[in-house]
Please model this.
Amino acid sequence: MSVTFRQLAPTFAAEVSGIDCRQPLSQDQIAAVEAGMDQYAVLVFRDQTITDEQQLAFTMQFGELENYNSGGHIRKRADSRLGAGIADFSNLDKNGNIMSDQDRVWFFKLGDRLWHSDSSFRPVPARYSLLSGRVLPSWGANTEFADMRAAYNALDERTKAEVEDLVCLHSLMYSREAIGFTDLTEEERASFQPVRQRLVRVHPVTGHRSLFLSSHAGAIEGQTIPEARMFLRDLTEHATQREFVYSHSWRPFDLVMWDNRTTMHRARRFDRNEVRDVRRTTLAGDVITIEQEAAAAD
Model:
């Protein structure tokens, strides 16, 4: 069966047919999915009744899993109910019960409802993320994506020139401060130290420019904090206008794959008394953004 794509939003996102994510892919299928990612940035695979092991195997056909020693969450690996390589983005604790609304892990997870790019707070940010919807609440819980290529293209020429060489500082502390969560241990603060990222990214395959925005971005080198945060807020408002956004309404066992280099995303509200069990695998990034121009030119 050939691989086909049906576009879902005006500038990006597509539903894929002809792929069974539970089975090994041929080289032609892998190439087709990668080309689809380069074109659409968000791909939706429907009806993928996948296990954790199958999700890991499917993911690793496109690269290496992200693997950092430093923390990317306040939840410890020992407290996870899932195995290595699978990130738990559910509202369940390690015993499979719905988290208390007073749990500090729940407070931290609420930051996922801000616009962000996965692992932008890492020295080398993530490439692809893949999220599998296993158990879904009865309402809400959409995942929204913003096309940062289209947002960049829509900037006026003066703003394009202004952002071209700017460098931002990204940290989980910035995004969690934005929702009022500042209850971090000294160990957590040490592991969340800011990293430098270019505000304009160049895609290493297509050469397309995109805005690299995220709620994790809290400063711009050479600017005062208030000025930088107002500018970043203005850019985020521009980049998340409806014409640049695809809102994914989950069905059971959807598998959604997106390119963090060219999109932002956010989770939406749902009834926290219902189970939302979604599981993510993440591929390691390919370039330090500060060095991207040299990489794009190779």
Q: What stands out?
A: The longest strand covers residues 128-135. The CA atoms of residues 52 and 261 lie 25 Å apart. Residues 294-298 have pLDDT under 50 and may be disordered. DSSP finds nine helices and 15 strands in the chain.
